[in-house]
Amino acid sequence: MHPGNGAEGPLTPGLVFEMLQAYQRTAALKAAIDLDVFRAVGEGPGDVASIARHCSASARGIRILCDFLTICGVLIKEDGYYRHSPTSAAFLDPRSSSSLASIAQFLGNPAQREPYDHLAEIVRTGRSVMPGDGNVEPENPIWVQFAETMAPMMAPMVGPLGAVVLEGHSGPMRVLDIAAGHGLFGIEIAKQNPQARVTGLDWAPVLRVALENARKAGVEDRYDMLPGSAFEVNFGGPYDAVLLTNFLHHFDEPTCVGLLKKIHKALRRGGRVATLEFVPNEDRISPQMPAAFSMTMLTTTPAGDAYTLRELTAMYNEAGFGGLTAHHIPMSPHTVVMGHS
Amino acid sequence: MHPGNGAEGPLTPGLVFEMLQAYQRTAALKAAIDLDVFRAVGEGPGDVASIARHCSASARGIRILCDFLTICGVLIKEDGYYRHSPTSAAFLDPRSSSSLASIAQFLGNPAQREPYDHLAEIVRTGRSVMPGDGNVEPENPIWVQFAETMAPMMAPMVGPLGAVVLEGHSGPMRVLDIAAGHGLFGIEIAKQNPQARVTGLDWAPVLRVALENARKAGVEDRYDMLPGSAFEVNFGGPYDAVLLTNFLHHFDEPTCVGLLKKIHKALRRGGRVATLEFVPNEDRISPQMPAAFSMTMLTTTPAGDAYTLRELTAMYNEAGFGGLTAHHIPMSPHTVVMGHS
Predict the structure, then answer these.
(1) Could you tell me how far CA B107 lies from the centroid of its own chain?
(2) How far is A299 from chain B (nearest CA, A)?
(3) In chain B, beta strands by DSSP E
(4) Which residues of B touch A116 (CB under 8 A)?
(5) Which value, in Å, is the radius of gyration of the alpha carbons in chain B?
(6) Antiparallel, parallel or unpaired: β A173-178 and A239-245
(7) What distance in Å separates residue A43's CA from the closest CA in chain B?
């Protein structure tokens, strides 16, 4: 994105054209992933003919697509040959261990994108035009896809979050992972502390993904499942820590406070809650990614938002938490906000 | 867009997220234009409540939309109040004489955007999935909308193109404007040279738009209409100059050469043809806008392209033209290429 707030170059209509055609960038990346272009480029030699052969595609189409990807910065072209940019080598070649290609399935899911065809109407009414409560409709199958595909995006956050939550704590502990999704955050706690026992809470079909990940990580014997809605199931407990990752932003403040109170009751005295959130500055226009995330909440939820630290602090305090600390996760748009009971 | 060809900052997945969500930028700008946000911001005072009132929209929706537009660089936010950025003041406020808001109707037309939902298939087959010949299907009504809405985008090109074509020529002359569209290019010749007589060629419903513009410019008594296909109608003539603006890119090279030969025959000896084109460098990845335009031709035509100067020169020469000159139009993605018969 552009720097925003007036930090522009010379006055040309370029930015207007760029925005009106920005959707082409999304389509180009999605098509390239679907056609396996980034594997073809990685394997070389990188001429149009061999990429087209690998992708079972036309030379005209591949040449224009790869030129476009080069213009976007996710390929490099030299003497007519395409090769990886640092970004595409690390994050788009499916052979890379840090490949993010799978997240295109969730972020590019037509159900997530369709609301943008009705954005004016959404802005008028102030809430998603999705059926029911949109992405927070009970048992919405989108969260199975989220759990299955978005793990690579969360992977860099897992270690830092685990360290913040454990705070060096090494004895026996019980951890509740609310909206566990892929389960990676709770699993990381179990990996970092062999005496930790983790309960994953999410819709039952989602928890199957988490359990499979727990199995892969070798911690399934310390991984329990609590299927259902965070607002309805009995949490059990008491817990030493509750993880609340990428969850509060889906709801309005009273709903968040209600949930935080329920969490507070399920915590052992001195226990802590850790939210992982997109936390924009109080100006709500910086940093770019956390601030822009409000748009996703506008289009997919009835009343969610990217909350500022002041708003989160107010909610935490109202629910009985104190000693709040915020930990930005480097190279990510995420912040861990810790509160103590 | 990003600078491309490896000129990146530190290695983060930010660019991948940005591309996967770039479509949100298009939707936000379109929604803001549809809701009349830029007029509301221009009229002030710029707080969420008054913008929401002007736009008959929710406060939540307007706040999130305006924050997003600020992040994109087309508004400025200070102390909770939104005001115009230089870009939005000049090009998005409908009260501005250089407003480009109408071009969102053409560039945002669902018929133009829909092919991008099938981009992988288009790359496979190498041609538009639009019905028939896509945008170059005879009598495609898209060109009426183009003529009606895209004039503001072309306005800055009109004067420079007129000057290049006239080359100081002030006597009687006849000019054929092929694919006249809004007609502004031919009309400009008539304005700069009171002895010039212009014939606009386009589909009949499109020519109505051109004639109306000729009337507004006070040159309708020197504006003739030649309705039909450039490939089929008899050009008449002979002409002193032929304008071929934003046309060749829709077709493959043999088709372009065929048309250029037909033009050559319709020109007086010593006459000239002037194409206005997106002309990328030979690397086809720079400058950004002309190079990226190939993608639009891939998705909307069977075989069009943004041709390089070498390719255009070869076509011109094959059709019998010589003395080629290229004139980049400053602050625009366009180049005028002149050839002499």
Answers:
(1) 9
(2) 9
(3) 75-78, 81-84, 173-178, 196-202, 223-227, 239-245, 267-277, 322-328, 335-340
(4) 23-24, 27
(5) 22
(6) parallel
(7) 18
Measure in Å the smallest separation between the Cα of A125 and chain B Cα atoms: 6
Mean pLDDT of B196-204: 97
B301 closest CA partner among B237, B248, B264:
B248
**CA–CA separation, B191 vs B170, rounded Å?**
11
Question: Which residues on A lie below 8 Å from B292 (Cβ)?
Answer: 21, 24, 68, 71
CB B159 within 8 A of CB B188: yes
Q: Which residues in A lie closer than 8 A to residue B331 (C-beta atoms)? A: 10, 12
The answer to whether A75 and A85 have CB atoms below 8 angstroms apart is yes
Task: Provide the pLDDT for residue B78.
Answer: 97
Q: Chain A to chain B, count of Cβ pairs less than 8 Å apart?
A: 297
**In this predicted complex, what is the ipTM?**
0.93
Test the B interface: residue of A5, A24, A283 with most B CBs within 10 Å: A24
Phi, psi of A218 (to 5 degrees): 75, 25
Residue B147: how many other CB atoms lie within 10 Å: 26
Nearest CB partner across the interface for B107, out of A21, A27, A285: A21
Residue of B27, B91, B283 with shortest CB distance to A13: B91
Q: Is residue B2 pLDDT above 60, yes or no?
A: no
Please indicate whether residue B144 or residue B275 has the higher confidence score (pLDDT). Answer: B275
Query: What is this structure's pTM?
Result: 0.92
Q: Are A48 and A56 in contact, with CB atoms under 8 Å apart?
A: no
What is the mean pLDDT of the segment spanning B195-217? 96
Question: Which residue is closest to B307 within chain A, CA to CA?
Answer: A64
**In this predicted structure, what is the pLDDT of residue B10?**
65
Residue with tokens 């259902």: A228
Q: Which residues contact A221 (CB under 8 A, 6 or more apart)?
A: none
Q: Are B100 and A16 inside 8 Å of each other by CB?
A: yes
- Token pair of B332 as six digits: 């625009």
The alpha carbon of residue B316 and the mean position of all alpha carbons in its chain are separated, in whole angstroms, by 22
Work out the average pLDDT over A182-203. Answer: 96
Q: Tens digit of pLDDT for each residue in B259-300? A: 999 999 999 999 999 999 999 999 999 999 999 999 999 999
Task: List chain B residues with CB under 8 Å of A153.
Answer: 13, 17
Nearest to A35 among B31, B123, B296 (CB): B123
Do residues B273 and B339 make contact, with C-beta atoms less than 8 angstroms apart? yes
Q: Would you state the pLDDT for residue A28? A: 98
Q: What is the pLDDT, as a whole number, of residue B156?
A: 83
A-chain residues near B298 (CB < 8 A): 60-61, 64-65
Burial of residue B323, with CB atoms counted within 10 A of its CB: 0-12 exposed, 13-18 middle, 19 or more buried: exposed
- The chain A residue lying nearest B93, using CA atoms, is A16
Q: Is the dihedral of CA B61, B64, B70, B71 positive or negative?
A: negative
Q: Closest partner residue to B23 among A100, A116, A289, by Cβ?
A: A116
Angle at A100 between CA A98 and CA A105, to 5 degrees: 155
Residue of chain A whose alpha carbon sits nearest to that of B62: A123
* DSSP type of residue B245: E
